[in-house]
Amino acid sequence: MNDQPSNSMKDYTEIQMIRNWLLWIILFALLLFFTFASVSQLVFGIPMGENPMPSWALIAGTLFIAFITVVMAKTQLILSIDSKSLSIRFGALGQMERNWSEVSKVKIIKMPLAGVGKKNHPQYGELYNAGGKQGLLIEFKDQSKVLVSTRQAEKLKAYLKQIKKLKD
User: Fold this and answer.
1) C-alpha 104: how far from chain center
2) What is the pLDDT of residue 35?
3) 155 vs 10 pLDDT, higher one
4) What pLDDT score does 109 carry?
5) Which residues are CB-contacts of 117 (< 8 A; sequence separation ≥ 6)?
6) Contact 27, 98 (CB under 8 A)
7) Exposed, middle or buried: residue 22 (CB in 10 Å: 0-12, 13-18, 19+)?
8) 3-state SS string over 57-103?
9) In the prediction, which pLDDT does 4 show?
10) Cα 127 from Cα 117, distance rounded (Å)
11) Which residue has the higher pLDDT, 32 or 167?
12) Predicted model pTM
């Protein structure tokens, strides 16, 4: 039996959108507030509070919050794996691509409570999280680590076993 995966083996790709209900509640509440304040002040002439914001600031705030909401809605965490390499792309937050020859160990673990986004974690190194409950911990030969969230842990585990990158 050949230890190398066949060329006909499909690659693994997982695309995750950011799912954090608290983040979305805050963004939509801010967008609703700025929209209401802008319409109230600009259309109906009713200032918001005793010391109202300038109209330009209300418009800028509304546009900024709308922009952030759209960017967050479009941001995807994409994990792509094949028999030669793995890559992680997280919109404007960052990306990385490494060959399996650089990897010393991989395992599926429970994600720490660290919020969504890309950040450095003291225990797990570079963390890419779109809100998944489990993650793929990748330890490299140079002692660096990367943890990427997954919502398809069993499918990912089966694929990694199939390409002989994950031991039982």
Assistant:
1) 24
2) 94
3) 155
4) 95
5) 93, 129
6) no
7) exposed
8) HHHHHHHHHHHHHHHHHHCEEEEEECCCEEEEEEHHHCEEEEEHHHE
9) 39
10) 8
11) 32
12) 0.77
Return d(Cα 167, Cα 97) in angstroms, integer.
22
CB neighbourhood size of 156 (10 A): 22
Total residues belonging to the chain: 168
Find all residues with CB under 8 Å of 139, minimum gap 6, and list them: 103, 104, 105, 106, 145
Tokens of residue 75, six digits:
């941001």
| DSSP class per residue in the chain | --SSPPTTPPPEEEEEE---HHHHHHHHHHHHHHHHHHIIIIIS---SSSSPPPHHHHHHHHHHHHHHHHHHHH-EEEEEE-SSEEEEEEGGG-EEEEEGGGEEEEEEEEPPS--SEEEEETTTEEEEESS-SEEEEEEETTS-EEEEEES-HHHHHHHHHHTT----
40-60 average pLDDT score: 90
Comparing 20 with 130, which gets the higher pLDDT?
130
